[in-house]
Design goal:
Structural class of chain B: mainly beta
Largest sheet of chain A: 6 strands, mixed
Number of helices of chain A: 0
Radius of gyration of chain B: 14 Å
Number of strands of chain B: 10
Helix content of chain A: under 10%
Oligomer: heterodimer
Radius of gyration of chain A: 14 Å
Number of helices of chain B: 0
Shape of chain A: globular
Largest interface: A-B, 22 and 22 residues
Structural class of chain A: mainly beta
Chain lengths: 113, 116
């Protein structure tokens, strides 16, 4: 079945440093979504990427979708303590009228003030 | 408007008992998902309902797990003969649809299940 791998599993950064998490799929994706889960909270949607090579920005966050639509990344510039949480990607694979959305295991970000 | 709600928020049960977890999706959302999240772990897909189609049960870990969605709205996840390894947070999510135009999932606050 489809697998969506996320690396790294954990990341500790000093406040102000940059952070990147990577998402890789074994199959071509129709689109990819990113979610953030704060400690003790539930996942909250951040963004969806659909087009090959697409890049979207939200303030200090930059999301990319690979040309082959098999990988994606989330980059945070100059991390802040409010960025703490676990970031999940979710890839959608479609074919023959069926759709399967698979979440990666997430990258847990800790920011040291 | 109201988001996804789940009840109970916490459930402690004895090993071997049955439990029912409830999810009220956002009104008008045709897709509904159940996930399980163990402490500090990722999201484990359990089951997905889309409109009147047969549910995708491919993620259910055993035949002790079942789910229903009545009238295309409220869903109940049932775990029979609970085991300690069933202890986790059970998250429900809903979205407008799943298809070529996939919509974001809105998650509920979860039910924390503890099996003693």
């Amino acid at each position: 079945g489809q697998q969506v791998m996320q690396i790294p599993q954990y990341q500790h950064v000093q406040e102000g440093e940059d952070f990147t998490t990577y998402c890789n799929s074994s199959t071509t994706l129709s689109n990819i979504q990113w979610y953030k889960q704060r400690p003790g909270g539930h996942p909250v949607f951040l963004i969806q990427l659909v087009k090959s090579g697409e890049v979207k920005k939200q303030k200090r966050l930059t999301f990319q979708f690979g040309e082959a639509k098999k990988n994606s990344s989330l980059h945070i510039t100059a991390t802040q303590t409010t960025d703490v949480g676990t970031y999940f990607c979710a890839g959608l694979r479609s074919g023959a009228g069926s759709y399967q959305l698979t979440f990666g295991k997430g990258t847990k970000l800790s920011v040291i003030p | 408007g109201a988001g996804v709600s789940q009840s109970p928020s916490n459930k402690v049960t004895e090993k071997g008992k049955d439990v029912e977890l409830r999810c009220d999706p956002i009104s008008g959302h045709t897709a509904l998902y159940w996930y399980r999240q163990s402490l500090g772990q990722g999201l484990e897909f359990l089951i997905y309902f889309q409109g009147n189609s047969a549910p995708d049960k491919s993620g259910l870990p055993s035949d002790r797990f079942s789910a229903e969605r009545t009238g295309g709205s409220v869903s109940t996840l049932t775990i029979q003969r609970t085991q300690q390894e069933d202890s986790a947070v059970y998250l429900c999510a809903s979205s407008l649809a799943v298809g070529r135009a996939t919509y974001e999932q809105y998650f509920g606050p979860g039910t924390r299940l503890t099996v003693t």
